[in-house]
Amino acid sequence: MPLKYFGIRVTNLESSIDFYTRLLGLKLKTTGKMEHGGVFAELEDPVTHFVLELNWYPRGSPFDTPYTPGEGLDHLGFEVDDALAVFKRLLAEGVEPALHPFVDSGWVLAFVKDPDGNWIELASKAS
User: Cα dihedral angle (34, 68, 27, 3), rounded to 10 degrees?
Assistant: First the structure.
C-alpha cells in the first residue's frame, strides 16, 4: 500500500499554488473539480516526485469545516488495488470509518480514521 501523496486543506487555492510553486519549487501537475464542488491541485516535488495535494472546499460542502491554522491536514492518500476490499478489511480490524466508499472521477474512494482521528484515503481505479 504505497503512500502516494499528502493532502492539505487550503483557504485560497490560487495563493497556495503560487506559494508552493513559485517560492518552494514544487511543480503544478494537475488541477480538477470534485463532484461535491471542491477543487484540488496536485503539486509534485521535482526531485522526490512526492505529491502535495491542495484541497479547497466551497461553503456548503460536507468537507467545509472551520479552518484553524496548523490543523489543515486533510488526509493521507494510499493507492490500493481494491479500495472497497481494503476498507472492509480495516473495519473488520476495528478501524473507524470516516467516509464510506464512493466513486468520484473514475476512482473508488473510501476514508478511515487513524488512532488520532486523522483521515486516511484509500483509492483504487474504478472498473
Answer: -70
DSSP state string for 36-103: TS-EEEEEE-TTT--EEEEEE--TT-TT-----TT--EEEEEEE-S-HHHHHHHHHHTTPPEEEEEEE
Which residue has 472492509 as its cell numbers?
A: 88
Average pLDDT score over the chain: 90
Residue 69 has pLDDT above 80, yes or no: no
Between 120 and 30, residue with greater pLDDT = 30
What is the set of active-site residues?
A: 121
Query: For the chain, which domains are there?
Result: 1-60 (3.10.180.10)
Predicted TM-score of the model (pTM) = 0.71
User: Which one is predicted more confidently, 94 or 64?
Assistant: 94
